[in-house]
Design goal:
16 helices; elongated; alpha/beta
């Protein structure tokens, strides 16, 4: 049995064709009024409503979209290359991403879409990227494995560490990959974050013993593009001990610690714990020693991708206005790689070596390698637990 809407849909095309023929429209209206018993005024209103609902018949108003489907599709590929960064952070990297992808024959979009993307504004980038974003659900929080050391008095407290520090003066923290329990032995990740350049270097280790932590610091030091001058951890026992203290004294490295019960004293490294380690290594428990080499390969790959291809927008100022805080950020987000090159205190030789490494990297290849390593770790862990 046909409904009222079905009858109106059957006559919609005839109604639209007779726009200038009042006699014909009157006949159509009279027929529908007789069949549906509707009010005469509702005839034109019902046809109008159906017209607006039908995209094939609806009148399209306004100028055509400049950033069409091809541009949006190309932007989505860049968004994936940036590992789904926000609009502010992806915008300064668009030209760099496109250049590298074209160089390695991985760019499949035409010249029209490419040129539009190269000239796109920040505002439009944010609007397009916002459509791509989706809610990730409730973020899972890890368990804390930090306990104060009895030797904490040997390490001085340093306050107000800022981005004005020289490169090589960074913060340290450990992240537990324990799942839902801190019991037993498992993998920890040591995170070094440079305060001046936001350079991140991470290293996986078995448990967080004093010797193991020192060895991880030595491995991190070897991969930094600048000399290591200072370490600023929290008051955990893996850092506040004679093993690390003696090594720092021998190497001429300044060792300080954050003030207890001041959660924002280690703000640089704490932020990178979530943005880097938790994002790529997750919250899963890694309690199989056999996966440690693969985890360290993953850490090295993640460090390369984050430092060379992930732009960071630093907060410049924070002030209280009434009952709220107003934060001012950099207008131009920069990658840690770019910040290192801009530092006058870093030697020309170190910068040239870093540029040589940068020329060999491709963000898409690094992301694929990260995905491959994560799959291998999962499969190896699954086999080891059987």
């Amino acid at each position: 049995m046909q409904t009222k809407n079905d009858l109106f849909k059957e006559h919609l095309k005839d109604w639209l064709k007779t726009k200038n023929n009042r006699k014909k429209r009157s006949e159509i209206a009279a027929h529908l009024i007789f069949v549906t018993k509707c009010h005469p005024k509702s005839v034109s209103r019902t046809f109008k409503r159906l017209q607006l609902r039908d995209p094939a018949l609806a009148e399209k108003r306004g100028r055509p979209s400049y950033y069409d489907h091809d541009v949006v599709h190309a932007m989505r590929d860049l968004w994936e290359v940036s590992d789904r960064a926000c609009g502010e952070n992806i915008h300064p990297m668009i030209n760099k991403y496109i250049t590298v992808l074209i160089r390695d024959s991985l760019w499949t979009h035409d010249d029209v879409a490419t040129n539009k993307l190269r000239a796109i504004s920040l505002r439009t980038t944010k609007r397009i990227v916002t459509k791509f974003k989706h809610e990730d659900g409730v973020r899972k929080h890890g368990l804390s494995g930090t306990t104060p050391s009895l030797l904490k008095n040997i390490i001085p407290i340093r306050k107000n560490m800022s981005s004005d520090n020289v490169p090589g003066d960074g913060q340290l923290d450990t992240v537990a990959h324990c799942g839902d329990s801190l019991a037993g032995s498992f993998v920890w990740t040591l995170n070094y974050t440079d305060a001046a350049t936001y350079w991140v270097q991470i290293r996986a280790q078995w448990n967080k013993g004093q010797e193991g932590t020192k060895d991880s610091v030595i491995a991190i030091r070897a991969k930094l593009p600048f000399p290591l001058r200072g370490l600023h951890p929290d008051s955990g026992g893996e850092f506040i001990n004679w093993v690390l203290k003696d090594w720092c004294d021998q190497e001429g490295i300044n060792l300080s610690r954050s003030e207890p019960y001041k959660k924002n004293d280690n703000m640089f490294v704490e932020e990178r714990n979530g943005h880097v380690i938790r994002k790529y290594l997750g919250w899963e428990r890694h309690d199989e020693l056999s996966v440690l080499p693969l985890l360290n390969e993953l850490c090295d790959t993640v460090s390369l991708y984050t430092n060379h291809w992930k732009a960071v927008r630093r907060m410049i100022k924070k002030e209280r206005v009434g009952s709220r805080y107003v934060r001012t950020y950099e207008k131009q987000p920069l990658t840690p790689y770019t910040r290192v090159l801009a530092q006058p205190s870093i030697s020309l030789g170190d910068k040239e070596e870093l540029e040589r490494v940068h020329e060999t990297l491709n963000p898409l290849h690094l992301l694929k390698k990260i995905a491959t390593l994560k799959k291998k770790i999962y499969e190896l862990t699954k086999v080891a637990r059987k």
